[in-house]
Amino acid sequence: MVNISNPLINILQAKILCSIIGEKREADLPMPAYVVRDLCAGCGACAHVCPYKAITVAAKLATVDPGLCRECEECIFICPNGAITAA
C-alpha cells in the first residue's frame, strides 16, 4: 500500500501515483487541507475564499477544521505563500 500521509504531497499527485501503480484506496480517502505553519503568513486569503468556513486565522496562523473542510482546494489555489496543501 502506498503511504501518502505526508502533508506536502498534493492530492492530485497522490491520486496519479496510486492510479499508476494500481492502488487507490488511500488516495480516495478524504484529505482535508493542511496548513504548513512555517509558510503561513496569516494573511487570511484562505479563510476569505473558503465556501465552507473551514478556515480560521488567529495570531497570524491559519487553521483548517477537518470536520468542515470539503476538499474544494480553493484555499490551496489562493494562498500566496503555498502554505496550504492537501493533507
Task: Give a summary of the structure in a few sentences.
The chain has helices at residues 11-21, 45-49, 74-78; strands at residues 33-35, 55-58, 61-64, 84-86. With 87 residues, the protein is α+β, with helices and mostly antiparallel strands.
Task: Give an account of the 3D structure.
There is one protein chain. The strands form 2 sheets. This protein has a two-stranded antiparallel ribbon with strand order 1-4. Strands 2-3 form a two-stranded antiparallel ribbon. The protein has a domain at 31-86: Alpha-Beta Plaits, CATH 3.30.70.20. The chain is an alpha+beta fold and 87 residues long. It starts with 10 loop residues before the first helix and ends with a strand. 24% of the residues lie in helices and 16% in strands.
Low-confidence stretches: none
State the end-to-end distance: 17 Å
CATH topology-level fold name of the domain at 31-86? Alpha-Beta Plaits
How would a textbook summarize the main sheet? 2 strands, antiparallel
Cα-atom Rg, whole angstroms? Answer: 13 Å
| Residue-averaged pLDDT | 80
Q: Which term fits the overall shape?
A: globular
- What pattern of helices and strands is seen along the backbone? HEHEEHE
Domain 4Fe-4S ferredoxin-type: 31-60, 62-87
InterPro entries: 4Fe4S_Fe-S-bd, 4Fe4S_Fe_S_CS
Pfam families: Fer4
Organism: Desulfofundulus kuznetsovii (strain DSM 6115 / VKM B-1805 / 17) (Desulfotomaculum kuznetsovii)
